[in-house]
Sequence to fold (627 residues):
Amino acid sequence: MENLAQLKSLYIEDEKSKALVASFNHDQPTVTQLKGLTGSSLAYRAMAAFKNQRDTQLFIFPNKEEAAYFQNDIQSLFDTKEILFFSDSFKKAGHFDRTERTNVLMRTEVVEKLFTRAHAKIGEIIITYPEALIEQVINKETFNEHLVKIKNGEKLDIDFLNELFLAWNFERKDFVEEAGQFSVRGGIVDIFSFSEEHPVRIELFGDEIESIRFFDLDSQLSIKTLDEVTIIPDTHTHFQDEKRQNLLASLPKRTNIWMIDSEVSIDHWKKNGIQIEKKFKEYENRNEEDSVDEFWQNCRNIQDHFTAHDEIMHLIKKRNIIEVGKNNYFKASQCIQFETQPQATFNKNFNMLADVMNNHHKEGYQNFLFAENPKQIQRFYYIFEDMDIDEVHFEPITKTLKEGFTDHDLKVSCYSDHQIFNRYHKYKMRRSFAKSSNATLKILTELTPGDYIVHVDHGVGKYAGIRKMEKEGVVHEMMRIIYGENDNLYVSIQSLHKISKYVGKDGTPPKVHRLGSGVWEKSKAKTKSKVKDIAADLIKLYAKRKAQKGFQYGPDTYLQNQLEASFLFEDTPDQVTATSDVKHDMEQEAPMDRLICGDVGFGKTEVAIRAAAKAVADSKQVAILVP
Fold:
């Protein structure tokens, strides 16, 4: 990452970056307009401003999509600091119908960070948009009243904790799957707070806390050991009778507000206010049988939950304002002019790209080529090599960049790979709040008493639910499985990896035998014997194939690299692995024998097209068979 560090250093040390920071005045707020910023250059100027002055920075973009792209750009410039995204709480921005739990979690996380780090020397970077900012948040006093801190070594009353979480509308489950759930299994308490990416597991020895750690929902393995943890409920949907305030009123005194296309955001606030009033009246006049989102059920009046646009503007004017874009609203105290221009349109013309880069190099510019995937960077080298271009001057950076730009002030050109290839680039939002898809836990949620299941050691039985059993003074949760003649087997939930759901042929119910009858062992032994026979035949077959000589394909050509770079979407990690393995097979002397498996829509065809192109490039015909 030396190239990125060098680029960041140029912006941090630049005089215009320092002039911007010098304009901030927290006693008499100022308005500074930034002119001439194009592409993703705003992210670099914002990063430099934060590095030079560690105050909290709030960025208000006209819509959620622009905010998310900027969040991706600026996050790539920080190694450890998390850039906070303050989302609206509804499923679709601007449609105030139903709340989305993932969005509520992101809002709660921002509030938690602001209130718990209020006295930190280093501020926060928060990205938001009009629909998110119009919604109010819980105030600090109420927030502090509705949280619980749990420390290692302290005593913990599980009954009290159970009552508290139920009062906070947490859902008690056998296993936590998403925020707002908790489980108690003997001396183990799992809690998924509304302000954390991962659930926390508390282990007790008697009533004393022995360990606290974050754990992964899928693997159930520990991620990080903690000395203490703070559990926070859903402060957005619940506690609506408590006093609330706008996020702007919750920010530290030393906060700078960046407004991108101010007039557009102000127009959104006005329109949103009208929409919200209309929506509130609809819910007031609804029929009793109508389905209503929990948020609107608890909403008594809109003034306590949403902020009028004139109040938002009043709060904004109390802070230093940095306006960016063409649609400015405020009267500027000063203006800083930047000399940048957007990345040229190359349309996969690599001769033109090489010429532009080399001409910039001759003029003393530094070229930086951005691609998130290192393999994509390698493709550029292959393409230029196959085109017999002697040398192309650029420095690679394996980070994402929404839009390339040339900064004439610093003599820097940044190129985005997806723009060069006309490839669609999608921003990435954090998905860690999503419901777990873990197979071993999922099986419990899918099973109903009477379902057939298979235990790897004891065979097919009938699932009969979860039972609590005490062993040596400790309560354990056990899965009960019924076998032939009502034999019972109790399996600890820690051994779920040995359980799978029975899948029979044509839905025919299986035979269930007694425990210890030996039938399952005989079936396994018979199957193992057949597997050994099949394996022996396969070994002979593959030995013959290995001895044969097939056609050995050559390395990737310029056309191959150009084709692969032209796909609209970036490869997934699995596609990268599969493509690499297929090509490796094709470049060996031995005949290729590989099967690519995957669900519908996961990119198998793209892998096949890559292999087909490689074959055609070596003068071979390709037949593609489809169902």
